[in-house]
Amino acid sequence: MTASSTMSTASASCWSCGAATSGAHFCAKCGKIQPLPKGTDYFAFFGLPQKLRIDSADLEKRFHSLSWKLHPDNFVRASENERELSLARSSELNDAYRALSTPLGRVEYLLAHNGMRKEGQKKQQAPPELLEEVFELNESLDELREAREAGGDAASTAKVREKLQDAEKTFTEKLEDVDAQLDSISAEWDAVIDADNNEATRRALMDRMNEILNRRSYIRNLVNKVAAELAA
Fold first, then answer.
1. How many CA atoms lie within 13 A of 167 on its CB side?
2. Distance between CA atoms of 71 and 89, rounded to whole angstroms?
3. Residue 96, class by beta-carbon neighbours within 10 Å (0-12 exposed, 13-18 middle, 19+ buried)?
4. Per-residue confidence in pLDDT tens, the chain, 232 aa
5. DSSP state for residue 33 in the 8-state scheme
6. Taking a C-beta distance cutoff of 8 angstroms, is the pair 26, 69 a contact?
7. What does 81-105 look like in DSSP terms, one character per residue?
8. What secondary structure does DSSP assign to 132-147, as a single string?
9. Which is nearest to 173 in space by CA: 212, 223, 214?
10. Model's pTM, two decimal places?
11. Using CA atoms, how far apart are residues 194 and 26, in angstroms rounded to an integer?
12. Which CATH superfamily is domain 6-101 in?
């Protein structure tokens, strides 16, 4: 993994005129659309370094500019190769924008691109510090289901619902804390990219990001579970 844009550093030649393109979207000499160098990441797609704190307005501006330039309507009279490149690039542009348009999405994409984010490989475990709260939450969920199935009185059901609402608020606050942690480590990551630190330093930061994302995913699922039961 490199700190700089893959597209700006890759060595490539134009398929049409043979001029050096450095992995740009278009050849500077003949203007023909170019295939992306293998391994190009979404950050590089927009001409950005692999930083996690991105100016949203700047990203949107780059997106609209590329969307106009790469749109298939501009290649109606071009060769079949150029039309295919335009279609593929326009589709990837939308994927890239969706992935990078939110802070969470950028972290998830960075880890996935580096082979460190593979959902569903193993069952998520409750973070040790949340075990007691998760146990109590599951008990309350069971109580509410049982009361609902047994047609329990309104007072007892209301009491359980109140406990669940408190738990929902608590875990929502924990989710906000985790998001604050992600923002903090994103700042660390960007500082490392600016300093061009070594691979081991970046890998250690990504390991920490992955742990935080796992914790966030677990808490988010709890919040969703409680919300679904309260809405049932």
1. 28
2. 9
3. buried
4. 444 444 444 457 899 999 988 778 999 999 999 998 888 899 999 999 999 999 999 999 999 999 999 999 999 999 999 999 999 999 999 999 999 999 999 999 999 999 987 554 455 667 777 888 888 888 888 877 777 776 666 666 788 888 888 888 999 999 999 999 999 999 999 999 999 778 899 999 999 999 999 899 999 998 998 888 888 7
5. B
6. yes
7. HHHHHHHHHHHHHHHHHHHHSSHHH
8. HHHHHHHHHHHHHHHH
9. 223
10. 0.83
11. 27
12. DnaJ domain (1.10.287.110)
**Domain map (residue ranges) of the chain:** 6-101, 128-231
Measured in degrees and rounded to the nearest 5, phi and psi for residue 202 equal -65, -40
CA 13 to chain centre: 32
Give the single-character DSSP code of 37: P
Tokens of 169: 């608020």
Separation CA 185–CA 167 (nearest Å)? 27
Q: Which of 7, 221, 171, 189 is nearest to 109 (CA)?
A: 189
In whole angstroms, what is the distance from residue 88 CA to residue 70 CA?
9
**For residue 135, what are the contacts with CB-CB under 8 A and spacing of at least 6?**
none
